[in-house]
Sequence to fold (374 residues):
Amino acid sequence: MPPEKNLSPRAALLAVATAFAVGLLASLAIRPPGAIVQQTTSETAGAAREQVRWRLASTFTTNMPVIGNTMPEFIADLKAASDGAIQLELFEPGELVPPLEITESVKEAKIQAGFGWVGYDQGRIPASTLISAVPFGMEPMEFASWWYYGGGQALGEALYEEHNVHAELCSITGPETAGWFREPISSLEDFVGLKIRFAGLGGKVLQRIGASVTMIPGGETFQALEKGAIDATEFSLPVVDQMLGFGKVAKFNYFPGWHQPFSTGHLMVNLQIWNDLRPDTRDLIRIACRARVTSTLAESGATQGEVIKNFGAQGITAVTLSREILLALRDVATEVLDEEADKDEDFATILASQREFSEIYGYWKRIGYLPRDF
Fold:
């Protein structure tokens, strides 16, 4: 027997997904016509496969590393694994719908699907922030453990089903930076009156401290920073922020990303369209999203060091927030989380689940790994 060859991630996904799909498809009846989207069936490789043709809008431009290249790779994976039965057409931010209105557009079936950071739904769905990024919350692997094995997936999907959307976890990245600043930050008082672009619950924390917080899409942030409309900004990972050019204007890049220890991306599909899919098609989409979760987690960890290493040559200073500032921010973050839970039942339910899971996970986290100063 010849030795096994190492498979690429995409080839591995294709092999697993194809075997899974073929096994199921042989025993499933063909769906009747009249679906809400272009979904038919054809004979491919001896088995009937559901044909899916969707338009998919993204919050992030496809030239962005990690967060932007997620959907092109996801779409390519699905097309290959389904032998062309599932083909999604991807649109850049603003081509179909405004980048911060993807969820509403999916809900109303203006588009079949979208991809983005669901924390942008904070105004309409307060608990969305808990499944996108939580200040001083879980680390990426901890969140993945909660989502897949701690009840998070059921809670997150139920939250969006109330809004006629199926939300499928499709990426997880490591922590973001704590922001790019024109001037150094030495105390909480330095945030007072600061005009800053900041997202999610972290923005609420800085508002509580006295900052003037605004939310603008990532593609518009550099111009606002350059023209002085804002004094500081956060957006994403160092490798993404570098591409957007923040370091050309704001020379102080702060760490750690206390407001987003993890950051997720979700595939959002109109709920009726999702429910009308055959089970094997839904399973194939879920498999492809799990592959992206693994890939984005790995890529986000692999690509930051080189960027930070070269900060000095660009006149950028990487600064670690003092323990005093971090403790003060954590206290305010706890207040904000508790107040949001008091106002929204879904928020309270999901927050309680995360806190309970983290308490148990902590037994392993504290003793299962080498200490960071080892």
Q: What stands out?
A: The first helix runs from residue 9 to 25. Residues 176 and 237 are 5 Å apart (CA to CA).
